[in-house]
Design a protein that fits this description.
Blueprint (H helix, E strand, L loop, with lengths): L1 H9 L6 H10 L4 E4 L9 E4 L5 H5 L4 H13 L6 E7 L5 H9 L4 E7 L3 H13 L5 E4 L2 E2 L4 E7 L10 H4 L8 E8 L1 H4 L8 E4 L5 H4 L4 H6 L3 E5 L3 H14 L1 E5 L4 E2 L16 E6 L3 H7 L1
Helix pairs in contact: 4-12
Length: about 290
């Protein structure tokens, strides 16, 4: 119990109305602040009211980044030349973290983000940090190239290709915009395919996972994916079967023992997951 409490404090997994009120007097709209904690400490992020204080302080998903860095390092997955696909880049925190992790190595990070307002924040955060190794891709990753309707929710974490997700509570309405779409297979068809794919797209994995069949079959990258809906659970489960991948669930620190089932099976596919080719099982097990 004590270790759980310490971890909650270490990674800022708590909410405090008093702390939020105090921070609201300090942070100002449109100002870039240096991150004080976590894996991107020392980098800068622009603040506005849509950015929660966990993010601006550097605590947003910090435990996930610490875990993933340990796996990549201990498992010797870091190469001298690496490509990362940040699918659903949002404010750019994963892209910033990837660049720091790969500092000193030849690397490119491709940050995919279709939401117009969020796209502006992403570009601003990359520019303020002077990072020339991150390429912003203003497209949604899907199962085809073209255009599609994208639904902008009440918060930048609620926007999605899925209307029902963007229309969820606490705001039952969402605006829609037309955005370009690409597939990961098409985008990387004439350049080095990614060694690591992060996918956090509010249910949109049901489309994007279909669009990287060639990459999964040939390059065999690691995939860090957050599932949001039962349909996305099923899409991940189908991906594991189709490409002979295994999964480890970060959410409860357990291997997925039943890859053909989904929630509510506790040993099935759900939550935040690390997907990896079956042939890498020993390296992953040793790294964990």
């Amino acid at each position: 119990m004590a270790s759980i409490s310490l971890n909650r404090l270490r990674y800022g997994r708590f909410n405090s109305a008093l702390l939020r009120k105090c921070l609201s007097y300090y942070f100002r709209e449109g100002v870039a602040y240096r991150v004080q904690f976590g894996p991107i400490r020392g980098m800068k992020l622009y603040y506005d009211r849509s950015v929660n204080f966990h993010a601006i302080l550097g605590l947003w998903e910090a435990e996930e980044y610490t875990f993933l860095q340990r796996v990549l390092t201990a498992g010797e997955f870091l190469q001298e030349r690496m490509v990362v696909a940040d699918v659903g880049a949002n404010l750019g925190i994963f892209s910033l973290w990837s660049t720091r992790l790969l500092e000193g190595r030849e690397h490119r990070v491709f940050a995919f983000e279709p939401a117009p307002d969020t796209l502006t924040k992403l570009r601003d955060n990359i520019a303020i940090n002077g990072l020339g190794t991150i390429d912003v891709v203003p497209s949604a990753c899907a199962d085809r190239e073209g255009t599609t309707e994208f639904f902008v929710g009440f918060h930048h974490h609620a926007s999605s290709l899925l209307k029902e997700w963007a229309h969820s509570e606490p705001s039952p309405t969402a605006t829609s915009v037309t955005v370009p779409t690409t597939t990961l297979d098409a985008f990387f068809s004439e350049q080095q395919a990614p060694d690591l794919i992060k996918m956090d797209i509010e249910g949109g994995g049901i489309f994007a996972l279909k669009g990287c069949a060639h990459i999964l079959s040939t390059k065999r990258p690691l995939v860090w994916v957050e599932s949001h809906t039962p349909a996305e659970d099923r899409a991940i489960s189908d991906t594991l079967a189709a490409y002979d991948y295994c999964a480890y669930r970060f959410t409860d620190r357990r291997a997925v023992m039943h890859p053909d089932t989904t929630h509510p099976d506790p040993d099935g596919v759900w939550g935040t997951l690390l997907l990896y080719p079956r042939e890498q099982h020993r390296r992953i097990a040793e790294a964990l």
